[in-house]
Amino acid sequence: MGNILKAFMLVLVILLVSVVLGMYQIQNDQDILVDLIYFAEPIEMSVARFGMIFFFAGVLVGISLCVLICIVLGIELNAARREAKKLSKELSKLRERNLKEST
Questions:
Q1: Model's pTM, two decimal places?
Q2: What one-character DSSP code corresponds to residue 43?
C-alpha cells in the first residue's frame, strides 16, 4: 500500500511541476537578448526558455553532486568496514592471548 501511495504522490508532484512550468512558459514568451560569455553575438530567446534552461541545469548539477557524494560515502563505508574487520580480528587475537596467559 505504501508503494502505491508513493507512486501516486510522485505522479502528482510531476503533474504539478509540469502545470507550473507550462504556465510560466505561457506568461513569459517575450524574447530577450542574452549575451553569453562563450558566444560573440547575443542570442535571442524567450525569458521562460532562458529560465528553464538554468533551472534544469541546476537540477542536473544537483543530482550529479548527490550521486558523487553517494559514491564517495560508499567508498568510505567500505574502507570503514575493512578497518572494523581488521580491528575485530585483532581484538579476538588479543582475547585469545589473554585467555592463554591467564591459564
A1: 0.62
A2: E
| Cα 67 to Cα 59: distance, rounded to the nearest angstrom | 12
Crossing angle of helices 47-102 and 2-27, rounded to 10°: 150
CB 13 within 8 A of CB 37: no
The SS3 assignment for 38 reads coil
Tally: H helices and E strands in the chain = 2, 2
Single-letter amino acid, residue 55: F
Averaged over successive runs of 10 residues, the pLDDT of the chain (103 residues) comes to 83 86 80 78 82 85 95 97 96 85 71
Q: 34: which residues sit within 8 A by CB, 6+ positions away?
A: 42, 43, 44, 45, 50
Domain parsing of the chain, residue ranges: 1-74
d(CA 41, CA 63): 32
Measure the CA–CA gap between 76 and 67, rounded to whole angstroms: 14
